[in-house]
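General statements about sequence and structure are easier to judge against a single worked case. When preparing material for the folding task, we compiled for one chain both its residues and its backbone structure tokens. The amino acid sequence and the backbone structure tokens for this protein are reproduced below:
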Amino acid sequence: MYKISDLFDLTHTLAKEYLEKFKYPFEALSGIKNFILELGATLDKTEYEEVSPSIWVHKSASVARTAYVGAPCIIGKNTEVRHCAFIRGSALVGENCVVGNSVELKNVILFDNVQVPHYNYVGDSILGYKSHMGAGSITSNVKSDKSLVVIKNGDEKMETGLKKTGAFLGDFVEVGCNSVLNPGTVIGRNSNIYPLSSVRGVVEENSIYKTGGVTVKKN
């Protein structure tokens, strides 16, 4: 199974020290809310403004008036939150990110330079540095039978113990338009997902996930 150290360069997030406490990314999900509350209270007041209780926005960030930002939340330097974005809370959004039109975020860590620009749902997930979700792609975070999420990699299985687990995208991952990342999906660094894909389990790093679930290594 992919560990946090396999997926992410932790120098590109304010969550570095928090994530270093865990071995696997799903282990970090349940504590994101409290972590953001603790971190927000320590932010440099010359750089971040607490625009509402437990909502900290960097002074260089751009947040559309039509966007909804729920607590707790941190929005980083030079990040753009666009028209009608819906940040439900428990969201750490890094530097130079784009949270676009009609995008919904909930209980997430977005590393620096992440783009979720058009009609994306990202819940109970961690998106690595410079990862990008194409228009309409989403993380599905609850199984249809409401059972606990199990992460699968071939014959290997890992019990998360969680009912809600979305996806974990390594650094530089590209997800094609209108793809669904099913609960517990893990995508290794530098991998690409074809548009209209339904992805389950683990996609190896430096891979291309093609139509029908065929995976090939990049040259």
Summary: Helices lie at 4-7, 16-19, 32-40. The radius of gyration is 16 Å. Residues 32-40 form the longest helix (9 residues).
